[in-house]
Amino acid sequence: MDVVPYDTPYGLAVAADLSEAEAYCRRLARTHYENFLVASAFVPRRLRQHFYNVYAFCRVADDLADEAPTTERAVQLLDWWESHLARCYSGDPTHPVLMALRTTNAAFGIPSKPYEDLLRAFRQDQVKTQYETYDELLAYCRLSACPVGHLVLHLFGYLDGHRQHLSDATCTALQLANFWQDVARDHDKGRVYVPKEDLRRFGVTEDHIARREFTPAFAGLMRFECDRTAEMFDYGRALRDVVGPRLRAQLDMFTRGGQEVLRRIAAQGYNVLRRRPVIPKTRQFCMLAGAWLRSRLPRPRT
Fold this sequence. Notes:
The chain is mostly helical.
């Protein structure tokens, strides 16, 4: 499909050489997402540009999906972006993000699958707004969340299945925590990530969510979802014991952030319909400082 993406800033992006391409990725990373910059503070300097390159690919895909005026246009633009990804792997990238990403993929042996899975997730979001079962939701997370963890592990040189499995637990738990935090906000966007089987089990309907009608049944539903997400965080925490201190600090920060979201949901009686739980900036700073200090501690002996 020949798509002219000039209705987005990314369709006009050009770079004369690799240095300009890398500068383009740095600008995207530094102007779009505060949490990414916080996380990058734990990244060794030698890896930082590669993190910018990977992030830039994901950032463009996210913007193309979210900012397109129609579902059809979003799918077209995601197809256009995947065609550029293919050129990255064929050796002929022209977009600055893919020019920079090509060097990262070559240096770390990163396959195309994590990127392709992310694009599948973005497309799926355009056409699927509800999930019948928890297993279906987890399958979506395997496309939308787990590839990010795999990419990070590649950059740190961890390619084994055991670490990827633990990473999948942490990444999925983070996404689920965000879903439970944003039940009302997602509904306003036409999406319900709480599985239908769970809604039926607790006697909660979409109308309850639409009307922001908080009931004991809804509280029980959110407690159920948060409890099993907490268990997933606990399982994934084992990853921090088998990675180096820099990655351990990132894992610690994001895991504790997700767990804090769950605690704040519980603290407000699981009523996420009328107030979205957030972590104050001062608390975020304390968690960041704590993650850095814990990263300095020696790993337990095995």
